[in-house]
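Students often ask why inverse folding is considered easier than folding. One informal answer: many sequences map to the same fold, so there is more than one right answer. In these notes we will look at a single instance of the problem. The structure comes first.
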């Protein structure tokens, strides 16, 4: 039973969390001068440790499926209205229409991700947004799943046409399969999200939606709709898992009906909770749609299979791996991996990220099993380590939710604004159906301060809730309070360690450019320049380097640069010794797809990734860049910045100091980059008009300050 005293304990813990945050503010009262990162990390770990002590002293109850307070919303007029079949049917129609729109817009619309509704709808609104809804409100996906709705309508039509027959074959689902089909499909989805370079291309998303539709409907046809949703539909598994934390549930009060359910939905307390198959078959008087305490659904007294345990760890590992990709450590690991592998060329990024994605869940599984074995040892080996691992696995879900909030909330709030103009022009054809096509995105809606403190609070609160739930499960499983408390020592070590690791990962410079070489944050300001020498007036001269050549299109041959123009006394092609106010931008070869931009300000770091592979000057071959900004002084991502990207060939046109510019920017005003996630900005499409050495300038304005960073590359034919 969850007693009022236990709820009071949770309130005290959250106060400790808030107080710790306030204390941190006391050390550095202005956000521009925050406390050192190590102090945040140690403070967060200490808060989790103190919460363990408070929970051990104050929480004595256990939890069962029928002992927590509930309010049946179906007894209220508003609840009955929302749950009315007409409302649910409208929701299913909207969901099915959106699936159709994703396929049509993806296949027929513009393939520029910034102009097409599909990438924003899939990655921002559906995956990130619906995950928050599932965790903080309830399992909306169970009601709006378009594959479930369309198959259900097809089944109803089939029964009407052929009375007495069922469209599904209803093969017996092999128990040994468990949720492994869903695990594999979710792993494939994570690979697309984190590894596949074409994940933002609308046509690719449309094709993947069609393929996944075929897999899902085939599973429903063979094993039945409800069975496949329970074991094989990856997103039903993911969103229902997050919804265990939510404050709503559906419940059926008819044990005889539930005993005939093929999904074996009854838990050890005899309760049927969140089984939508039973809910659909039950009489109205036997249905409940309850409001309940947050997170109580994660301590249900039920069996958990190994495949379900692996799914939870996979969900946690993939979101952690997403954050880990933005750390310098990943760059070092990637470099080491490439040293052991044969020359992979452009496939290097794909192979190394795939290996990392496969390794992270295995590493999480190994560590979790080790700590579970330690729990079994310190509790007197009443249960095996694997048994305890399965029993406690759902207590890790609050951590997954917390990391999801910390990692993606700012991304949702900023990038989600793109939905407003895109709904008026979903195909990118220049429409303005709803009058919102000209809506301007406000990148300053959330700032770095909001993002950082949201991260700290979410990570710490998630781990505290996980510690609390683990204590409740230990009390129910081991019965004796002393043994239960002792069994949680290994779990406490795991929680504290993961708290510190999570904050460290989320605080690291976002170096997403896997292929970028180590480079200083400040420009070379002494010696002879081997690249573009940027002069005090902003003009650039190509100093004598082996790459100081370009193709003469009229003659079709290579010729050295010997233009007659002089800028401040310097000529393209000569050796230039840097003087005061000048700095050097080295030129990377044509096989480079990621750069560390040169900046005169040591506190400002810029990394750039080519989103479409090698840059070429071919006609209709546009480039796209992801630009990442990092403030070295504050150790935070730079959000809310205004970015313009200018590219030029200073040596090509001797009549203008600016040189030859981009084909789609004839006035050399600069192409604007738009925010894509916290600290990241995207500029596309960009048309380099000819091959040769190009100097790219990134102009950044943020909070009234202006910064410039440069990188130079060879554009291939």
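Output (designed amino acids):
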């Amino acid at each position: 039973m969850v007693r009022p005293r236990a709820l009071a304990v949770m309130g005290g813990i959250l106060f400790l969390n808030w107080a710790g945050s306030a204390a941190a503010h006391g050390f550095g009262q202005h956000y521009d001068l925050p406390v050192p990162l190590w102090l945040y990390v140690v403070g967060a770990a200490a808060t989790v440790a103190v919460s363990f002590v408070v929970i051990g002293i104050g929480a004595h109850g256990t939890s069962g499926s029928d002992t927590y307070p509930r309010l049946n919303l179906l007894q209220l007029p508003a609840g009955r209205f929302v749950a009315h079949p007409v409302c649910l049917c409208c929701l299913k129609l909207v969901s099915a229409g959106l699936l159709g729109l994703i396929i049509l817009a993806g296949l027929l619309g513009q393939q520029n991700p910034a102009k097409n509704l599909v990438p924003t709808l899939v990655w921002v609104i559906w995956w990130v947004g619906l995950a928050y809804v599932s965790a903080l409100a309830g399992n909306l996906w169970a009601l709006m799943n378009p594959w479930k709705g369309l198959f259900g309508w097809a089944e109803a039509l089939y029964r009407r046409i052929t009375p007495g027959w069922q469209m599904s074959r209803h093969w017996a689902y092999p128990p040994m399969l468990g949720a492994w089909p869903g695990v594999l499909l979710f792993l494939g989805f994570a690979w697309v999200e984190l590894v596949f370079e074409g994940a933002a291309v609308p046509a690719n998303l449309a094709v993947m939606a069609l393929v996944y539709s075929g897999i899902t409907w085939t599973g429903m046809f063979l094993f039945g709709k409800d069975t496949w949703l329970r074991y094989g539909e990856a997103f039903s598994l993911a969103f229902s898992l997050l919804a265990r934390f939510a404050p709503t549930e559906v419940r059926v009060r008819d044990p005889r009906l539930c005993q005939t359910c093929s999904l074996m939905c009854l838990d050890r307390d005899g309760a049927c909770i969140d089984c939508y198959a039973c809910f659909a078959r039950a009489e109205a008087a036997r249905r409940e749609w309850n409001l309940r305490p947050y997170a109580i659904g994660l301590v249900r007294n039920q069996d958990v299979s190994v495949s379900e345990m692996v799914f939870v760890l996979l969900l946690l590992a993939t979101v952690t791996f997403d954050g880990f990709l933005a750390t310098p450590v990943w760059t070092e690991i990637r470099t080491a991996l490439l040293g052991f592998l044969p020359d992979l060329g452009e496939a290097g990024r794909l192979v190394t990220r795939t290996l990392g994605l496969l390794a992270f869940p295995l590493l999480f599984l190994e560590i979790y099993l080790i700590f579970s074995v330690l729990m079994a040892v310190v509790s007197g080996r009443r249960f095996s380590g694997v048994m305890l691992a399965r029993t406690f696995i759902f207590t890790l879900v609050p951590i997954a939710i917390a990391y999801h909030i910390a990692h993606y909330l700012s991304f949702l709030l900023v990038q989600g604004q793109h939905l407003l103009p895109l709904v008026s022009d979903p195909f990118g054809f220049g429409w303005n159906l709803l009058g919102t096509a000209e809506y301007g995105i406000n990148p300053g809606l959330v700032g770095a301060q909001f993002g950082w403190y949201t991260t700290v609070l979410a990570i710490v609160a998630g781990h505290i809730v996980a510690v609390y739930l683990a204590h409740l499960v230990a009390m129910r499983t081991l019965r004796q309070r002393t043994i239960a408390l002792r069994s949680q020592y290994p779990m406490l070590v795991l929680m504290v360690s993961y708290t510190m690791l999570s904050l460290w990962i989320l605080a690291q410079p976002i170096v997403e450019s896997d292929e970028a070489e180590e480079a200083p944050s400040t420009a070379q300001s002494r010696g002879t320049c081997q690249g573009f020498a940027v002069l005090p007036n902003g003009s650039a001269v190509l100093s004598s380097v082996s790459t100081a050549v370009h193709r003469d299109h009229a003659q079709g041959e290579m010729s050295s640069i010997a233009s007659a123009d002089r800028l401040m006394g310097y000529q393209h092609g000569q050796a230039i010794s840097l003087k005061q106010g000048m700095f050097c931008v080295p030129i990377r070869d044509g096989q480079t797809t990621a750069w560390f931009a040169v900046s005169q300000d040591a506190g400002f770091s810029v990394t750039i990734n080519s989103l479409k592979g090698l840059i070429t000057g071919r006609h209709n071959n546009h480039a796209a860049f992801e630009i990442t900004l990092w403030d070295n002084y504050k150790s935070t991502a730079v959000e809310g910045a205004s970015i313009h990207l200018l590219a030029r060939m200073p040596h090509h046109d001797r009549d203008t100091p600016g040189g030859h510019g981009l084909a789609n920017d004839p006035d050399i005003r600069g192409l604007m980059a738009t925010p894509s996630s916290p600290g990241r900005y995207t500029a596309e499409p960009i048309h380099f008009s000819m091959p040769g050495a190009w100097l790219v300038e990134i102009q950044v304005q943020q909070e009234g300050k202006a910064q410039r960073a440069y990188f130079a590359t060879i554009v291939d034919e």
